Amino acid sequence: MIGKAFNFYYNGFRNMTWGRKLWRIILIKLFIMFAVLRLFFFPDLLKRDFNSDEERGSHVLEQMTQP
Amino acid sequence: MLESIDMSLVDWSRGQFALTAMFHWIFVPLTLGLSFIVAFMHSIYVRTGDEEWKRITKFWMKLFGINFAIGVSTGIILEFEFGTNWSNYSWFVGDIFGAPLAVEGILAFFLESTFIAIMFFGWNKVSKRFHLTASWLTAFGASLSAVWILVANAWMQHPVGTVFNPDLARNEMTSFWEVIFSQVAVNKFLHTISSSFLLASLFVIAISAWFLLRKREILFAKRSTVVASVFGVITAISTIVTGDSSARIVAREQPMKFAAMEALYEGQTHAPLVAIGVMRTDTTSYTDPQEEFIFKFEIPNALSYMVFLTPSGFIPGITDLVYGNKEQGIISYEEKVERGAVAIETLRELKRAKERGDEASYSALKKLFSDPVWLDTYYSNFGYGYYKNRNVTELIPNVKMNFYAFHVMVILGVHFLILTLLVLWLSLRMRWGEHKWLLWVALFTLPLPWIASQAGWILAEMGRQPWVVYELMPTLTAVSRLKPGAVQLTFWIFLLTFSALFIAEIKILTTQIKKGPEGK
């Protein structure tokens, strides 16, 4: 069953014609998104800067209530 | 309270989010709609065994695949932005956004990814019925994954089914079903899905018109047109009906957005509907409402009738909402600001009491956040409190932008209904293609559903301003305190990347369209 499914996908990808160009675009796009943008430009600030939900909550509360 | 926020940071963050969302929305509606049209064509092929229907299905499936491939994961960037640029907002909305997006991720991955592969690779490899099932499941999977993001957006427009946890500054879901089945969420889903199907129908009609104009693939083009025009008529009607109910919901839940989209400054009974109008560009204030229009054509009583199904219904104008109207029981923004400020001060006091270990004060203050009367009087106006000591007119959304977005959407919607009706009528009489000018009209209509769809989102999002979560969190407080330069840099990176992707999409699509269906 797993072998059949693997062959199905393997042959599908091998026999692609116009789809190859699309896969190149998808891979380049995913690389830019995850390896460049996510890694260097878009950290999850609250996860990065605080260790617990309480600390995160306290930080946001501070920002929301600062006079 | 908002003085410490750099406005250029807010503007760049909003611009970046708008750019990403609008780019993402170029692909989504076509994916949603075309998947169903392809599944329907595929069903006709399986039922009839007619090889021409197989060619038709494969051609539109190919265009669907290109659009899906270029568009896939452009929405993920929005989630990056939530965590980086809108961290206060992300935290504040809590599991309201997290849960639906997690469900969306799982559904999108398993349903779409698995069945799309079978849909594309399955020709002559799996049974016809299984292959067809994969096409339908791809279509349903796409719509199902759209449900969750629309539910989350609906909650931002009309927060229900949640309770605010003052310890964590976070909203917690109390009723999943109330969030999912709120009237705003249901209507938003139906309107968005209908308009997406309509967009895809007009796409198929336009491309088919191009083939007919070139006198190529006549049978293919005419058959595609019949299917698309049936979808088009049904979904144009559905889009208008759900749009109408959406307007009624907005009038009730977001009266300022409703007043802005009609540029109604003075509230009135027997309110007219502006069918077409041109607003002055040299006025920016609402101090002289009569002077706002250069020209307008109104339908008497229609606005009151649209909302209340009677012409005597009172529609509040912008001034009624800002300054209040005792006769109509509308409290002023000044009063709301005062109430909101009390809620913020209470939250601040609660935080201080907790920090100094004052259990008695802390418990007393916390109790307020579960008191229905206090919540209704003060917490429901929480966001207004940030505008204390500021000009309350800052709470008015951009009237011109909302007015034009709404009217462009409505005028185009009427055009789409007339066009699809005409195409269907002529197709059923075997006369579609005889009138060259109509084919040109169909072809030139190609970009218009995207304009209408984007206008709809501009209205939904700009009309809600200054709120990111309606009346609870202003956009200004939702933003992360980053350096504006950093946001600017990613804005330009996105613009470059998106432009490249868009050019690639258009280039690949046009190449494949020019080639036409294969296998004759």
Q: Please tally the helical runs of chain B, counting DSSP H or I stretches of 4 or more residues.
A: 20
Beta strand % of chain B: 5-15%
Rounded to an integer in angstroms, the radius of gyration calculated over CA atoms of chain B is 25 Å
In whole angstroms, the N-to-C terminal distance of chain B is 69 Å
- Secondary structure: helix percent of chain B: 55-70%
Structural class of chain A: mainly alpha
Which radius of gyration of chain A do the C-alpha atoms yield?
22 Å
Mean of pLDDT of chain A: 82
Main sheet overview of chain B: 2 strands, antiparallel
Q: Helix content range of the residues of chain A, please?
A: over 70%
Strand order of the largest sheet of chain B: 1-2
**Morphology call of chain A:** elongated
pLDDT < 50 stretches of chain A: none
Sketch the major β-sheet of chain A. none
Query: How confident overall, as mean pLDDT of chain B?
Result: 91
Question: How would you characterize the overall build of this protein?
Answer:
- The complex is a heterodimer of chains A (67) and B (520).
- Chain A has one domain.
- Helices cover 81% and strands 0% of the residues of chain A.
- Chain A contains 4 helices and no strands.
- Chain A has helices at 2-14, 19-41, 45-49, 53-65.
- The model of chain A has no long low-confidence stretch (mean pLDDT 82).
- Helix content of chain B is 69%, strand content 5%.
- In chain B, the strands form 3 sheets. In chain B, strands 1-2 form a two-stranded antiparallel sheet.
- Chain B starts with 6 loop residues before the first helix and ends in a 5-residue tail after the last helix.
Give me the secondary-structure topology.
The complex is a heterodimer of chains A (67) and B (520).
Chain A: H1 2-14, H2 19-41, H3 45-49, H4 53-65
Chain B: H1 7-48, H2 51-71, H3 76-84, H4 87-93, H5 95-121, H6 128-157, E1 162-165, E2 170-173, H7 176-180, H8 183-213, H9 218-253, H10 255-261, E3 273-279, E4 293-299, H11 302-308, H12 318-323, H13 333-355, H14 359-368, H15 372-377, H16 399-428, H17 436-444, H18 448-462, E5 467-469, E6 473-474, H19 475-478, H20 484-515
Antiparallel strand pairs in B: 1-2, 3-4, 5-6
Helix pairs in contact in B: 1-2, 1-6, 1-8, 1-18, 1-20, 2-9, 2-20, 5-6, 6-8, 8-9, 8-17, 9-10, 9-16, 10-16, 13-14, 16-18
